[in-house]
Amino acid sequence: MTLVATDSPILTPSQPAELNEEQSNLGAQSQKFVLTLSCVERAGIVQAVTTFLFDRGFNIDEHQQFDDGIRQTLHLRTAFSGSPDYTAERLEEEFSSIADRFEMKFEFHDQTKKRVLVMVSKFGHCLNDLIFRWRGGSLGGDLVVVASNHETHRAMAEAAGLPFVYIPVTPDTKAEAEQKLLDLVDEYNVDLVVLARYMQVLSDDLCRALEGRAINIHHSFLPSFKGARPYHQAYNRGVKLVGATAHYVTADLDEGPIIEQEVIRVDHSYGPATLSTIGQDAEALALSRAVRWHCEHRVLLDRTSTVVFR
Questions:
Q1: pTM for the model
Q2: Which residues are identified as catalytic?
Q3: 45 FRET partner, CA 20 to 30 A, in 108, 156, 240, 295?
């Protein structure tokens, strides 16, 4: 064996760990942001965005865009990282001249997690799934409080360390109950309200107050089988697919912009009880995805529709 002399340092087993630690410290100092924007399609938009970020020393970590040829609009989501000296507010201020030039609707988001209020009634499968994903770190946001018109799931919420607020609802107390909900939104600095099988119709005023920051899960593949006992309706019609739809809440009942839909194939042998069980799986999947995508700023509202960058 021939030994070759070299000026390169010989790494001992401890050196790679020290280098990794140094790299980790540098990574910890890097600030992460997400830019979302929508505007009329024009030449030079992407170049303006990338130049803006490059000039400030940012590195683009993820970039997605959708050019809507039908509506002649551009939707964009760019995740980037770099200097810890910047804040989302400073970026918005410095970007405003570019936004004005292209007439953009835009937002910069930092790493602050969305604070989520979950509303539930007697069915607890969606709440249970959200809690599981939140505690596992895969939900994208932070659950901060659970509200319900029943006491059924107090133990589930409190076992997860979440405050549980009982808000009974009757036709005579509906307005008062909805005001209590808005008070909770303010008290807990809530960014997103999730209706996890909350079986009360929200008033038009409340829907408008929560516009763009309330997500509902509907127990069917909209627009079919609205209202009560959807799986019995599905059984009676001999369906071959069971589905669930996660959408933003609007004053038009179950007709808000759709974020996600999940379907599971079934056949004639599935009775209403089995369909219901399978449907609950679809509901939990569709809702958790919608919540995560919203919290990660992957959903852009476009009139009555959405653009979802998965």
A1: 0.86
A2: 254
A3: 295
